Structure formats: C-alpha cells, structure tokens
Amino acid sequence: TDAHLKAMEAARVLNAYVLETPDQARVMAQAADAKLAKGEGGWLGGVPLGIKDLFATKGVRTTACSKILGNFVPPYESTVTAQLWRDGAVMLGKLNNDEFAMGSANETSFFGPVVNPWRREGSDVNLVPGGSSGGSASAVAAGLCLGATATDTGGSIRQPAAFAGIVGMKPTYGRCSRWGTVAFASSLDQAGPIARTVRDTAILMRSMAGYDPKDSTSVDRAVPDYEAAIGKSVKGMKIGIPKEYRIDGMPAEIEKLWSEGAAQLKAAGAELVDVSLPHTKYALPAYYIVAPAEASSNLARYDGVRYGLRVPGRSISDMYENTRAEGFGAEVRRRVMIGTYVLSAGYYDAYYLRAQKVRTLIKRDFEECFAGGIHAILTPATPSAAFGIGEKGGADPIEMYLNDIFTVTVNMAGLPGIAVPAGKDVQGLPLGLQLIGRPFDEETLFSLGETIE
Ligand code: GLN
C-alpha cells in the first residue's frame, strides 16, 4: 500500500485518480495485516486497488466524474466494492472515468482527460487510455494499483484494457451486482475487473461476482473459483472466427494480430471454425439508440434536489433547467437529447422499438453460434491502438462511437468478454484481442485468454 501511494504521488500527471484516500488506505492495510497475522485475512488480504468513481463508496466522495454530483458522499457502499473489502482488499482512491461512463477516450470527465502511460516510439505526444474506464486502465498499467474495478456498457472495460496493454473482463450480464454503481444504461451495464494479468483478473472477479438480492437482474448462481481456470487445457475447444468482424479498411496490423492469436490457440489444441454473425453491422447504431434511451431515463434523477449541484432559478423548473445545463457536460447532454427523442411519442416505434428488435437478432446470432458447438469467439478488441488526446471525435462524435465497433455486440447480447494483450503496433503501442463466451462461462475465457497473453 505504501509503495503504491508513493507511486500515485509521483504519477499525478496521468490524472488517473480523481481522489486519493491515503489515510483510509493505511487503516485498511493495517486491519488486513492484523487479520493476516491471525490467519484470518481473505484471499485479497492487503491487496491495494483503485476504484472507478462510478462505484458508491461509503463516506468517500463519488461523482461519476460529473459536475452534477458535486461533492456527493454516499451513505452506502456498492455491493461489488463491499465484497472486495470483505475479502481484505485496500482502497487507494477513486479513479477517473468518462462522465457517467459515456465515452471511449476518458475525455468527457469533469476532472479532465487521463494520460495513457504508453507512448509511440520516439514521440512525446500524450495518448488517451481509452474509456470510459480510462483511470482504471492507466493506473493499472502504470503500477498505481494492483488492480481496479471498472464498468462496461459498450466496451468500457475491454477497450481501455486493450489500449493500455493489460487485461479486462466484462462478465455476463447479471454476474456482478449493479447495486450502488451509478447507472448509465441499466440493461447493458456490468461491473468487472481490470488487472495486469489474466490470473489477477480472475482472482478479483471471484470477489466481485455473486448474487445480490438488491439488484433484481443479478443472477443466483454459485461463483466458481475463476483462478482454477488458469492453466487449464484448451484442447478440443472450438473457437469461432466471425467474418463480419473483418471490417472495411481494417489496418493490416490488426488483421495480423488476429490471425496470430488464432494460430496461438490452434497451437494449444483448439479448433478454429469460420462463423457468421450476420447482424453485427447493426449493433453500433442500435447501441447508440438503446444506451442513450436508458441514460435519459436514468439521468432524470439529477434534478438539483436529490444530489450534489443546485443552480437556483426563478421557479422550480428554472432550477431544474439551470442545474442540468450547468451540471452535465456536452456528451451527456447529447445523449439525454438523443435518448429523449427516440423514446418520444411518434418516434418510439421507429427508433427505440426497432433497436430492441435488432438487439434480439444480434443475441440470436450468438445463440446459434454457441448451439453449433462453438465455445468462444475470437475478435480484435479495438479497430486501432491508442490515439492522441484531442485527436478524435471533436467535430464528429460518430468518429469516437466507431471505436466500439467490436465491443458493443457483447453488451447487446449480455455475454461475457475478455480483452487480453496480444501484440504491438508498428509504433510500439499495445494491441488487444477479445474473446467472447457463452453466458456464465467466464472460466473458458480465462483459460483461453491466458493461452494468448
Ligand atoms: N464508449 C461507449 C459509450 O460511450 C461505451 C461506454 C461504456 O461502456 N461505459 O457509450
């Protein structure tokens, strides 16, 4: 814990933490030590972690990196973090993220952008760590925590993990409780771990997962010992290679990474099978209807009355308007407007309902694939390596949305997905591959992921 607190201080230029909690960390570490001395420490006894600022932490400021939450201090703890503390982990602080987890570059945070510790060879240009869990990825990659919590609505665990050369697991929808996690799009949101190795990710996941009666979409299934999946043979497993992920204009280095990853799995005894997921091309447009629709509804609670910021006005509706206009950043306002529009009378059928139907088709594509005997699907994690801060999405938000092309399908179908580092681009930046699994079969993804890593 002390070593990490020192490293955090020395690396503040990365802007990975929005709040450091050194006093709390030392108290937690001492308590963990005392327990360990008595032979009682949990399996995370004394392990220092960073917590994405989307997780409510009792008595510790939680803002989702939005001005509208101001100095909100929750009187409760999220289930996921409570389970980590139960098993002995130590909190180092709260990590930066895109405002309300909306973004792919950690550039929409009220606290400013996060810097990726990686740089292009021979360049001093600061790169994004990806988003929305950019603080988690940057902190783990730079050694500012041993692991971090993150959330993934359309790729926010996997894409930053890939951009920072580390591992991120987005569990099956329902595997981790959403209780006490700031809601973005409730039917897509899922918490999961980011860490430096597949094994570390599996160890964290065991604590984070589990049924929670406080979340009606949490699933009552025993939590396996994910670490036991590490080192398990992948011989005879069928790995689907979906042709729809070979998108137009895909860089040669991503193609190469993908075929090398496939070759590695083959060398380990897995069988490669060409598969088709025909509705893939509709996933991104459908996601950018469903996610803003749910966001517009979830964010209605920030009204200047219940939480954080209040900007007065002449009437109560003026107060609502002023608070929301000042409290939400540009990307959040855009999503609220899109979401309200697609849910409004007259447009609901044309946009929202249709997007939900497309979502079902995407899910069925995967179901058919798995019913045909496929154990997991291998794809690239991102269409490129990390890009420069301010380089993308300025005038055209769609340029940024395109980053999620390989990851959003997984959330639409509620499936588990892992991103593992698999190579470097020509400029020496890390690139990741993604493995998509059957529902509640994270173990297979850990086994396969470790084979590639
Ligand atoms: N980049 C996607 C978005 O902006 C996904 C974000 C996320 O997974 N939280 O919606």
UniProtKB/TrEMBL annotation:
Assigned protein family: Belongs to the amidase family. GatA subfamily.
Gene Ontology biological-process annotations: translation
Function: Hydrolyzes indole-3-acetamide (IAM) into indole-3-acetic acid (IAA).
Gene: gatA
MF-aspect GO terms: ATP binding; glutaminyl-tRNA synthase (glutamine-hydrolyzing) activity; transferase activity
Protein's UniProt name: Glutamyl-tRNA(Gln) amidotransferase subunit A
One Pfam family hit: Amidase
Active site: K52, S132, S156
Keywords linked to the UniProt accession: ATP-binding, Ligase, Nucleotide-binding, Protein biosynthesis, Transferase
Gene Ontology CC annotations of this record: glutamyl-tRNA(Gln) amidotransferase complex
SUPFAM superfamilies associated with the record: Amidase signature (AS) enzymes (SSF75304)
Residue ranges constituting the Amidase domain according to the UniProt record: 1-445
Principal EC category: ligase
EC number per UniProt: 6.3.5.7
Reactions catalysed according to its record: L-glutamyl-tRNA(Gln) + L-glutamine + ATP + H2O = L-glutaminyl-tRNA(Gln) + L-glutamate + ADP + phosphate + H(+)
Entry keyword Heme: no
UniProt subunit comment: Heterotrimer of A, B and C subunits.
Xref: Gene3D superfamilies: Amidase signature (AS) domain (3.90.1300.10)
InterPro entries, A to Z: Amidase (IPR000120), Amidase_CS (IPR020556), Amidase_dom (IPR023631), AS_sf (IPR036928), GatA (IPR004412)
